[in-house]
Amino acid sequence: MRLVARDVVVRYRGGDRDVLDGASFEVRRGEAVAILGPSGSGKSTLLGVLGGLVRPTSGTVVVDRDRGAPGPGAAAAAAAGRALRPADVSAWVLQTTNVLPERSALDNVAVAARTQGLSGPQARRHAAQRLADVGLAERAHACARVLSGGEVQRVVIARALASGRPFVLADEPTGQLDRSTSAAVLDALLTTSAEAGVVVVTHDPEVAERCDRTVRIRDGRAERA
Amino acid sequence: MSGGWSTRASLAEGWAAVRDGGALPAALVGVVALVTAAALAADVVAAQRVVDAEAAYLAEGGDLLVARFVGDGASTEAAGAEAEVDAAACTRLGDMAGVRGAFALDVEPGGARVVGRPEAQQTVVTATDDALDLLGVTALAPGEALVSSIVADRWLWATGSAFRLVPTSEALGSDALELTTAAVVDLGLLAEGASTGVLLPRAATGTTQTCYVRVEAWARDDVAAAVPAALGETSDRPVQVAERLPAGAFARDPAADYDGRPTRWAGAAAGLVTGLLLAVVAWTRRGRAALYASVGVPWSGGVVLRWAESLLVVGAGVAWGTFLGATTAVLGRGADAALAVPLALRGGLAALAAATVVVVLVGLARPPVLASLKDRG
């Protein structure tokens, strides 16, 4: 399975330039790709396009299902009677704290598990396993607001895993963490998501080095680094 | 709802958001309750004012029209007026739409002498049956009379007291009347001159000085216009129809006042206010909606989730506010519970409906997911 963007142009409403200007990008399931580039270069916009959260002004983004299992998003698309879309196959890990702060780590992860059609108890068992995968089994019942930054990011990674989606899109997942915590989070992301396609937007060359390949955004286009 | 995410999951998440939400849901329920309670209490108090005003107006005889012939020597005063009105025609007015009762009434100042009270002349009032209903008396048995409170005080009579009257007016006959006090009432409601009288029932036969008509406020003008013809008015014997109370006292229509009270839509207004408050809260928390979308909850699932969360807050707040509003009006402002409870319930339902409309519409909004997640929306 591949997530493929071709000749994507994005200009935000009211914007005076194209943030992406004919960018093409591809990620396969099972590989990790880093996207590098200066601030404002369009890294996050490309990620948003890949995940179906930003509608391109022109160009296409498709899910190529020639290879690999369809994943739970395919079931959702089939149930809705439509083609598989990028948003159906991608899960998100963002830099900012994107958890339900008043809920437990387990509840946060279980939400994603329920998108697979699991019942409440099944989702919680599944979520507990995903939290164990990222080393947070003992913090499963802790309220999210008392977790450290690194723990929160691992909860978010566990949530992405629990969704069962074949692609994980991470926007500066270690941007607000110290060096040792960043390493632990990156380990969790790349190790536990080994079967998924992982796209990581980052400023950190060390993060890029951990990925299978690196793409740099320059003048609105994606270039192999 | 598509794919794996179920409506049940949305409802469970909505409930969990309220249950685990800490101070915010509790504060929102409190604010919704206070806004609702204030609005409903204000409406109940306003309605109670209308009801009190109507009660006072009825107690003063505000629903009475008095008809009598005028001209050719007929007096415009009830007391001592010439008896020209057909009593049967008068009582038939009670069958008209908007008429609650009609009765013939005569006042005979000094119409009798009280046996055992030398030199005492007694005003005697005679009236047909509907007058008793106005005075709150169901019926009088033969030999029973109603005594005005002034007369009761003067002669130290009470309910059950026996007395004799010797008529001095031909209209009352010539035989002494053996009477028992059935009740002590305020006969001044009927006419100024009746306030010192003793009321005896009379048959709807012959003629009477005045015809009293109890009307519903909404029918007042139509009834007033129809009465002269019904009583046999002619060009040389016009019928005057006047209000029992001084001019202007009957000008208000309690039903119209009730329907037109400014706080009538307070419940719905409170619902709109609370709905808009929740809309603002939803906008400030749009990141949550985006979060659910980003983990794969379909838009329809997110809508149901937001509806469930908001409606739980609205439902709890309005229910509490309705209780508080009714309680405040009854205990704090002396409103009648029989009025306050149904009025507050109706207002609460209106508040719930209005808030629900806003919440449902706001729940349909689809914020830009990525911008909201990155707090740029």
Percent of residues in beta strands of chain A: 15-25%
For the biggest sheet of chain A, the summary is:
6 strands, mixed
CA gyration radius of chain B, whole angstroms: 33 Å
* Structural class based on helices, strands and sheet pairing of chain B: alpha+beta
Distance between the termini of chain B: 26 Å
Question: Globular, elongated, flat, extended or rod-shaped: what is the shape of chain B?
Answer: elongated
Compute the number of helices of chain A.
8
Biggest β-sheet strands, sense, barrel of chain B: 6 strands, mixed, barrel
The largest chain-to-chain contact, stated as pair and per-chain residue counts, equals: A-B, 36 and 28 residues
What level of helicity do the residues of chain B show?
A: 40-55%
Average pLDDT for all residues of chain A: 86
Describe the structure.
The complex is a heterodimer of chains A (225) and B (377). In chain A, helix 4 runs parallel beside helix 6. Chain A is built from eight helices and nine strands. Chain A has 225 residues and is of the alpha/beta class. Chain A has a single domain (2-224), classed as P-loop containing nucleotide triphosphate hydrolases (Rossmann fold), CATH 3.40.50. The model of chain A has no long low-confidence stretch (mean pLDDT 86). Chain A has a six-stranded mixed sheet with strand order 5-6-7-3-8-9, sandwiched between helices. Chain B is of the alpha+beta class. Chain B is 48% helix and 18% strand. In chain B, strand 3 (99-114) and strand 4 (121-127) form a beta hairpin. The model of chain B is unreliable at 73-80 (pLDDT under 50). Classes of the chains: A alpha/beta (225), B alpha+beta (377).
In short:
Chain A has 225 residues and is α/β, with parallel strands linked by helices. Chain A has helices at residues 43-50, 72-79, 86-89, 105-114, 120-133, 149-162, 179-192, 205-210, and strands at residues 2-10, 20-28, 32-36, 58-64, 90-94, 167-171, 197-201, 213-218, 221-224.
